[in-house]
Amino acid sequence: MDGRASDKQVKAITAIATGSAGGPMAALGPPVGTIAGVERGPIQFEIGGLRRTVHAGTRVDQACEGVAAAQHQAMRLPSTTRLRL
Question: Which of left, alpha, beta for 32 (phi over 0: left; psi -120 to 50: alpha)?
């Protein structure tokens, strides 16, 4: 969780992510089991050309790079579902 989040925001996002708020995430609760907790820390997103990176404390350090299309832009595949936490 971003370190700048308020206590109210942390509570709301935790309820959504754990499924206790209901909705589609509630179906994921049984397979996941126990949530160990929520950590706050800095989150940084970077976009450079076709490369996308995310850093979240010491837990997340990921990057991906798109494939250039004929127009030298990232190709996008349509998505019918979106998950935003």
Answer: alpha
Beta carbons of 17 and 85 less than 8 angstroms apart: yes
Single pTM value for the model: 0.59
Q: Where are the domains of the chain?
A: 1-41, 42-78
Nearest CA among 61, 12, 18, 62 for reference residue 36: 18
**Cβ atoms 13, 5 nearer than 8 A:** yes
**Cα–Cα distance, 76 to 59 (Å, whole number):** 28
Tens of pLDDT, residue by residue over 33-42, are: 777 888 898 9
